[in-house]
Every structure is written in C-alpha cells, then in structure tokens.
Please model this.
Amino acid sequence: KSLIAFVIFPAVALFFMNSCTDEDTYPITPEIAFKSLEILQNTSQNDSVVLTFSFTDGDGDIGTPQLDTSGRDVFVKFYEMKNGVFVAFDDPFGAFNYRIPFLIPRGNNSSLKGDIRINVDYNVLQPNDTVKYEVYMRDRAGHKSNTIQTTTIITGVE
Model:
C-alpha cells in the first residue's frame, strides 16, 4: 500500500495535471503587432532601421523552405514624406520583402508566436527624410495577416 501511496498516486496525479494545462490557441490566419523601429547609424552613410513586430499563427505554417530562393513572407511598404504628405516608395523589385526561416511548432500544440526583427536599409533616401513603414506577412497556406504601421522616424539627422 505504501508503494501506491508514495509512487504511483503522485505519478498519476502529475500526468493528469500536465494534460489539463491550457495551450495557447490562435487563429490560423497570422496576426502581427508593431513593437519597435530603431535607427542604426553607420559611418558609411548606409543607415538602416531594425523593425520588430510580434506574430501569432494558429497552425504554425510560418516561414519559407530553405530551397525556395524566391519565396517571401514579410512584405514591407515604405513611405517617405514629401511636401507634408506620405508617399509610397515605388518598389518594383520587392527590395522591401523578406524571408522568414521555415518554422516548425514543437510538441502537440501547432500554434506559433514570437518576435520578428528585420534590418531595413534606407540608403535610397536623402538626408533628413521622415519615413514610416507598413507591414504584413503571409503563412505557407497563403493566409495574409493584418497590416500594421510603424511609428514615424526622421532619418539622416546629425
């Protein structure tokens, strides 16, 4: 009886307590939220910004397979202020589109969440420009996330 009381009962109780834990569940369409935009000033005058946003995805199908060299997951639209109005930068070659590494959820929960940091080079700009970015992402099934907008920053200020 003491073996049951001290070994088996606690083991069974732990099993049931672990199986009752709440797992994070999210919609299968990715959701993103803006976190920060930091200026990195280089001495070569090719400054860049680090854009950070959080994401969730309910079925965990985020990222491009390594052998897919043309696939993109994160789409960034660049805006520059001209004459007091933000104007979208014409980006016909997708210079502001980025890849996310192929992610695989761990364990039984297929949901994914995390932060994504992207270095965006803005050497296409003239000094002292005011810029902002719009961002969205797609998962491997093609679900498009919501679109977020970054804060406005003034670049090239010395």
Remarks:
- The radius of gyration is 22 Å.
